[in-house]
Amino acid sequence: MRRIIRVASWLYALAVYGFIFLPVVVLVLFSLQATSFPIPPFTGPSLRWYDAVLSDVRLTSALVNSLLVASISSATAVTLGFLSAWGFARFVLPGSGLLRGLITLPLTVSYLIIGMGLLVLFNWAGVPKSLLAAGIGHVVINLPLCFAIIYSQMGDHQINIERAARDLGAPEWKVLLLITVPVMAPAIFAGFFLSMTFSWDEFVISFLLTRFDTTLPVEIWNLLRSGLNPKTNAVGSLVFAVSIVLVVLFELTLLRRRKT
User: Fold this and answer.
1) Is this prediction's pTM over 0.85?
2) Would residue 181 be called left, alpha or beta, if left means φ above 0 and alpha means ψ between -120 and 50 degrees?
3) For residue 87, which of 146, 151, 175, 156 has the smallest C-alpha distance?
4) Which of 4, 12, 207, 218 is most buried, by CB atoms within 10 Å?
């Protein structure tokens, strides 16, 4: 009976992981297709379509735009999230529970609703569609995540270290920069890399808030409008590869946090 349960468990695990990763495997496999159609039989491997992607000015510009928007918006979100978390953890504020709930509220709201709300707001304020508008949208969706991660890691032992630094004459800004930030570095980096992952392949807000200069997911959507081809598979594989790198960095950061 134990043997049957063990075999059934392995089969179940294989089925689950196959369901999750089989589309990615097919995507990567047919990005290496040598012919112009991503259909069986597989002819390759060939880097022809990766070369076509890297030679396409629109795609490379969109790639650079995505990296810029993701890195700058994530840095902004993690900075604001850290300052908010530090304020709520170190000071007694009236209605702090309600305010914390309002900060994390965007986590429960659809990106489509957030994007449409920002689009209406920017139209009313006269802010044109641009990478800046998309970056602000990414800060809105990532700041609650960064706040939740950093706030959950702020404990009493850090308060004691900060109090000791103040007793030795350190001003508040030095306590914040030289004590709190280094102690919270694993949580800060975890929030940053997770925000980068979400911002890197975010489509809805970028689609609604950009016009001429677009991000890579929007350009991929434009390619898909003309049908599937190995070039779209190559772009998708690059997006997946960058996402995997960011997730690995996030996991390494959490591993370092557990060890310390």
Assistant:
1) no
2) alpha
3) 151
4) 218
pLDDT tens figures, 143-190: 999 999 888 888 777 777 777 878 778 788 888 888 888 888 888 888
CA distances, 256 to each of 122, 156, 187, 193 (Å): 41, 20, 10, 14
CB count in 10 Å sphere of residue 144: 21
Burial class (CB in 10 A: 0-12, 13-18, 19+), 257: middle
The residue whose two tokens read 């790639």 is 63
Using CA of residue 112, residue 108, residue 96, residue 194, what is the dihedral sign? negative
| Distance (Å) of CA 82 to CA 49, 76, 89, 119, 177 | 42, 10, 10, 27, 12
Q: Which of 54, 50, 56, 63 is nearest to 213 (CA)?
A: 63
Write out the two tokens for 185.
């570095």
Among residues 26, 27, 44, the alpha carbon closest in space to that of 35 is found at 44
> Amino acid identity, residue 239?
V
- The position carrying tokens 């003309």 is 226
